Amino acid sequence: MTEPIKKRLNYLSWDEYFMAVALLSAERSKDPNTQVGACIANRQNKIVGVGYNGFPIGCSDDELPWDRQGPFLTTKYPYVCHAELNAVLNAISTDLSGCRIYVGLFPCNECTKVIIQSGIKEIVYLSDKYRDSDQVKAAKRMLDLAGVSYRRFIPQRPEITLSFSLD
Ligand SMILES: O=c1[nH]c(=O)n([C@H]2C[C@H](O)[C@@H](COP(=O)(O)O)O2)cc1CO
Ligand SMILES: [Zn+2]
């Protein structure tokens, strides 16, 4: 009698899968300093929206600035759409009740408003590098009031490698 074949054990957990999709999406970003990706999953663990930070549709990447400093209008900040906003706008439904959003970076206050209004109930984030900023402080205040939970993604493996050569 031959032993039955056992299932593969090194498969991605749901958290790893959705965070990896968020990080892969971030690779589309042309922001030279911070690339952010977001992935929204529903209660059935189906991906319902993804996004990354970039300029609005029709606004050429070659026309608008990527600068971080200088007069406001000469920086990227008034023009760039954040990853979370794009993920919500790209989602298959405007009602994201009970969904989770996986993001590479803790959401700012503006994205937090969008997240709350969409019905998303949990944020899973990787970096909180702007935790001391007023934007993130305001974001956490609103999330606490609105009952939207947030937790840091704790990696169980250092990396996931993708290869285009499967042979
Ligand atoms: O939650 C976020 N989501 C998001 O997509 N972003 C984007 C906007 C910018 O393109 C970039 C932040 O740029 P910087 O780290 O150079 O300030 O990340 C920034 C935040 C947090 O501010
Ligand atoms: Zn934002």
TrEMBL record:
PROSITE patterns, per the entry: CYT_DCMP_DEAMINASES_1, CYT_DCMP_DEAMINASES_2
Transmembrane segments: none
Cofactor(s) in the UniProt record: Zn(2+)
Keywords assigned by UniProt, alphabetized: Hydrolase, Metal-binding, Zinc
Highest taxon listed in the record's lineage: Bacteria
Stated name of the protein: Cytidine deaminase
CMP/dCMP-type deaminase domain span: 13-150
CDD domains, per the entry: deoxycytidylate_deaminase
UniProt similarity note: Belongs to the cytidine and deoxycytidylate deaminase family.
InterPro entries, per database record: APOBEC/CMP_deaminase_Zn-bd, CMP_dCMP_dom, Cytidine_deaminase-like, dCMP_deaminase, dCMP_deaminase-rel, Deoxycytidylate_deaminase_dom
Record bears the keyword Heme: no
